[in-house]
Specification:
heterodimer, A: 479 residues, alpha+beta, Arc Repressor Mutant, subunit A, 3 domains, 9-stranded mixed beta sheet, 19% strand, elongated, B: 479 residues, alpha/beta, Amidase signature (AS) enzymes, 11-stranded mixed beta sheet, 15 helices, 11 strands, 39% helix, 13% strand, globular
Chain lengths: 479, 479
């Protein structure tokens, strides 16, 4: 595209996401057919999920419970709710209407906190049923050229929660962070498996742009068919640029629903606002309003596990850093381990560094005690950073005591007089370099410092502590 | 023969269930070609079921309360493996894979299903002329209509094809044909009888109920089919009704109100014969020790208008599933949308199309509040007015229909004239209250007239007690 990044800076992208998550119930939302992914087409169906004449929906209590869990985890108000019919014709909709919630959703007005502490508004999180799945055969899988279509109703009637976020996100990174945070929450509370690749988590994205420093929202377009976090970012980037170009060329944005084409890396128009469906919502007469009692909601609230946000805050307090810095550790589910290590007097800073950089693949056989004493050894200068990394790798693989592992590698800290002897020897063997280290400008000094440290480390087979070597070199240079 | 007598004779071994069934089948063979009460006569299966009852008797097994009693079933109730058409081309040939709950209950009680009866397509009509399979005729005079929409069921009982029948009542579809055919017809409290397996017309109004020659047979049948059903969310969590043991308690001291808006001068188009029968009924009740006074349900005059928004609105959604994709005949066209359109264009009759269009319009964006919203508020007003009336009265009465049976073709050209047939019956559906029609003599044309008895929600017992008093003075029926 023709816009450069400077021009992009004059604009702000405003994003609001609608996330659909399949709820992890055993059976469907309104019948006893199984809710399970995969399996032979149409094996998990019954009169209700096929919409046969005379069939009636009966609400799955577990789906309501999971929806309330989601609402509470997103700081929503749980309220008396009413199901509504959303009417439209499509072969994947067996009844030609979807049972959803309209003016009275089960959860309203909450928020989700991003790792950096910003709160993103949640407008509502309501219950609805999923549709079947259509496969178009022939013509490259597109409906218009297909020779015939197959419909699998296994997904029909699977409970969904639709989480409608406020337009509080400001770019592709924000959107991705929001979705991963939301996914972590859904998984943590057992509401959904959150698998985007299996379609149990689906994201529709509303994008608009406005000039920086302005308040008024621009006309938005909704993007569908986003199947991964990567496509989400790409789609937003593409769409924002498209809209900016249109406005900069003096035209207006038309409110549209657009389709993200992953292969082409662009969005296509599906339909305009005028072509939008009139869903003719009205209260579902086959179901009664859902009125969860206060006691039940409280019971559910009490059963919620600690949420990613709380865990970030707890760990941040323990390590004395900003919550955003603990996000990776919480994501890796290593925060409890970190807190245990700290309770064994581990060095907080080293805990953070190791968990972020050196324990990405998990802790294996490492115990919190061993981890704690490792960090203490580092702080006491018994181990260099490099040595600590080696010891840590062994502890992860085999377990054991860091003192012994260090010893087995021959990592015993050098005493300073021994080290000074080595430094003196190296200086005398390289007197020209030493002179340029002492007399050189900043650049030269840096270069030579690296040269000397390298030689000394080589001489001591890495057992010297780089920090101390530098101290000795500076001291000698001053003399 | 009365159903209660059949049960007695079959159970005692005096008469075999087979011979009972054979008798009724013989009557069907004699006159069905004149009446056209049935879409399908299941004679073979009925005889097999009767044999099973007889063998149970032979082996001394306990029998159900309807053992050996033949019953006709309105063709909008799902019967497993037996064609269920709703008298519509769009369901021609469809065999449900399951039984409606009421069918299960009847079978368990030992009833013998003898056939599926004709109706106005999808229960939309008041004369059974809107059937795709030809009209049913009134057994009292074959030139006249039997009423509708359950005209086939009413005619089957009146013609002696079966002592009992089931119908469905959305705006009077049991009571009005019962009145026109001179039989007892009952619409129970909404939620008293399970709707599971009743092909929906207007879900918030539909209710299944019995037809019988006598009040006690109707009571027995209602006892069998009533009771909570976990498969219907709108089903009332109550045990099955107990009425039979209380039928002869009389109405001494009962306070009876005559709804002025639906009787005598209050009702436009009421025939003098019908008016004078209401007066006669008042005398019967007074003589039996009840106090009878004029009662007012002012909002009931808006019932018809509200009904013709709410019922079509729900119908437009309920009937959307008939698209030729999963069941029923399909008219192939070049695209999915065209296939659906062609299937529906060919499959539905005019009245069904008229109501789908009415309902779709009433729910459309921008019109919803003016039509559907307002009608729901009228519905609330009617409930409130009934509640006020029931502060002063135990039951209310009115004529069931403004006139006796009318000639075939008389009202088909003017839907409004046809709709007016239900002006007295609709308010009970909107309120969800029970109401029944009791035959009470004949007009000068020799055609039956019915008196409607209305009761507050759950007060079926009092309603039946009054019906019993009326019946004993009517000289009608086969007491």
């Amino acid at each position: 595209m023709a816009l450069n990044s400077l021009e992009m800076n004059d604009w702000e992208t405003v994003i609001g996401l609608e996330v659909h998550a399949e709820l992890a119930t055993k059976t469907k939302m309104f019948s006893s057919a199984l809710n399970s992914f995969g399996g032979e087409p149409n094996c998990n169906t019954d009169p209700v999920s096929l919409g046969l004449p005379g069939s009636l929906p009966v609400l799955n209590e577990k789906a309501v419970e999971l929806a309330i869990r989601v609402g509470l985890a997103l700081n929503c108000e749980v309220q008396k709710s009413v199901f509504a019919r959303k009417n439209y014709f499509y072969p994947d909709m067996p009844k030609a209407y979807q049972i959803s919630q309209f003016d009275l959703p089960i959860n309203k007005e909450g928020w989700l906190e991003l790792p950096d502490g910003r709160r993103i508004g949640i407008e509502r999180a309501h219950l609805e049923e999923d549709t079947g799945k259509i496969t178009h055969v022939g013509g490259g899988g597109r409906i218009h050229e297909a020779s015939y279509s197959l419909i699998d109703y296994n997904r029909s009637g699977v409970p969904l929660i639709e989480i409608v976020g406020a337009p509080d996100l400001r770019g592709p990174d924000d959107a991705r962070e929001y979705v991963s945070e939301l996914r972590s929450i859904l998984v943590a509370i057992g509401a959904s498996d959150g698998k985007m690749e299996e379609g149990s988590l689906r994201v529709d994205c509303n994008v608009s742009v406005r000039r920086s420093e302005t308040e008024e929202l621009g006309t938005r377009c909704e993007i569908k068919n986003i199947n991964s976090l990567r496509s989400l970012g790409r789609a937003i980037e593409y769409e924002a640029k498209r809209q900016i170009e249109i406005i900069e060329s003096g035209q207006e944005i038309e409110q549209q629903t657009r389709h993200w084409d992953e292969a082409e890396g662009r969005t296509h128009k599906l339909r305009s606002k005028e072509e939008a469906f009139d869903y003719r919502y009205f209260p579902e007469p086959d179901l009664v309003p859902v009125e969860p009692s206060e006691e039940w909601v409280k019971e559910i609230a009490d059963s919620l596990p600690s949420l990613p946000r709380d865990r970030r805050h707890l760990l941040a307090e323990a390590i004395e850093v900003e919550p955003s810095e603990t996000s990776l550790i919480v994501q890796r589910d290593l925060d409890t381990f970190a807190l245990q290590a700290i309770s064994f007097n581990a060095d907080k800073n080293r805990v953070l560094v190791h968990l972020e950089n050196n324990l990405a693949d998990g802790i294996g056989e490492l115990t919190p005690e061993a981890f704690a004493s490792l960090t203490v050894m580092e702080m006491n200068g018994e181990l260099t950073a490099t040595q600590a990394k080696t010891v840590l790798a062994d502890l992860v693989e085999l377990g054991g005591d860091p003192q012994e592992v260090a010893k087995s590698h021959g990592f015993e800290s050098m005493d300073n007089s021994e080290l000074e002897e080595v430094v003196d020897r190296i200086i005398s063997e390289n007197s020209d370099d030493w002179l340029s280290f002492i007399n050189g400008d900043e650049t030269e000094r840096k270069k030579k410092s690296g040269f000397f440290v390298g030689l000394i480390m080589k001489e001591t087979s890495g057992q010297a502590d780089g920090k101390i070597v530098n101290q000795i070199l500076s001291a000698k240079a001053k003399n | 023969m009365k159903a209660t007598e059949i049960v007695e004779k079959v159970s005692s071994g005096e008469v075999s269930a087979r011979s009972i069934a054979e008798n009724y089948i013989e009557t069907i063979n004699e006159s069905e070609s004149d009446v056209n009460a049935f879409n399908l006569v299941t004679a073979e299966q009925a005889l097999m079921d009767a044999d099973e009852i007889d063998s149970k008797i032979a082996s001394g097994e306990t029998l159900g309360p309807l053992a050996g009693v033949p019953i006709s079933i309105k063709d909008n109730l799902c019967t497993r493996g037996v064609e269920t058409t709703c008298s519509s081309k769009i369901l021609e040939g469809w065999k449900p894979p399951y039984n409606a709950t009421v069918i299960e209950k009847l079978k368990e009680a030992g009833a013998i299903i003898i056939g599926k009866t004709n109706l106005d397509e999808f229960a939309m009509g008041s004369s059974t002329e809107n059937s795709a399979f030809g009209p049913t005729r009134n057994p009292h005079n074959l030139e006249l209509v039997p009423g509708g929409s359950s005209g086939g069921s009413a005619a089957a009982v009146a013609a002696g094809f079966s002592p009992l029948a089931l119908g469905s009542d959305t705006g009077g579809s049991i009571r009005q044909p019962a009145a026109l055919c001179g039989v007892v017809g009952v619409k129970p409290t909404y939620g008293r009888v399970s709707r599971y397996g009743l092909v929906a017309f207007a879900s918030s109004l539909d209710q299944v109920g019995p037809f019988a020659n006598t009040v006690s047979d109707a009571a027995l049948t209602l006892e069998v089919i009533s009771g909570h059903d976990p498969r219907d969310s709108t089903s009332i969590p109550e045990k099955p009704l107990e009425i039979s043991g209380f039928l002869n308690q009389g109405i001494e001291g009962m306070r009876i109100g005559v709804i002025e808006e639906l009787s005598g001068k209050g009702l436009e188009g009421i025939s003098p014969d019908v008016s004078s029968k209401v007066e006669e009924a008042i005398k019967v009740f007074s003589n039996a020790g009840a106090t009878v006074e004029s009662a007012s349900v002012p909002a009931s005059i808006y019932g018809l208008s509200a009904y013709y928004v709410i019922a079509p609105a729900e119908a437009s959604s309920n009937l959307a599933r008939y698209d030729g994709i999963r069941f029923g005949p399909r008219v192939e066209a070049s695209t999915t949308a065209e296939t659906m359109t062609a299937t529906r264009t060919k499959g539905f009759g005019d009245e069904v199309k008229r109501r789908i269009m009415l309902g779709t319009y009433a729910l459309s964006a921008g019109y919803y509040d003016a039509y559907y919203g307002k009608s729901q508020r009228v519905r609330t007003l009617i409930m409130n007015d009934f509640a006020k009336a029931y502060e002063k009265f135990d039951i209310l009465i009115s004529p069931t229909a403004p006139t006796t049976a009318f000639p075939l073709g008389d009202k088909t050209a003017d839907p409004m004239q046809m709709y007016l047939q239900d002006v007295c019956t609709i308010p009970s559906n909107l309120a969800g209250h029970p109401a029944m029609s009791v035959p009470f003599g004949f007009g000068e044309d020799g055609m039956p007239i019915g008196i409607q008895i209305l009761a507050p929600a759950m007060a079926e017992r009092e309603m039946f007690q009054a019906a019993k008093v009326l019946e004993s003075e009517s000289g009608n029926g086969i007491e």
